[in-house]
Amino acid sequence: MVAVVPVLGGERQRLELRAVLDVLRPAAVVTLDGAKAVAFGVRVGVAEPLLVVDVGAQLIEVALLTDGAVVEARRTPLGVDDLSAAEVVEEVADAVLGLLQGDCCGQVVDALDRGVLLAGGGALRPEITYKLSRGIGATVRPAPAPHTAAVRGAATALQATHRHPGTRNT
Question: Is the dihedral of CA 144, 106, 60, 74 positive or negative?
Answer without folding.
Answer: positive
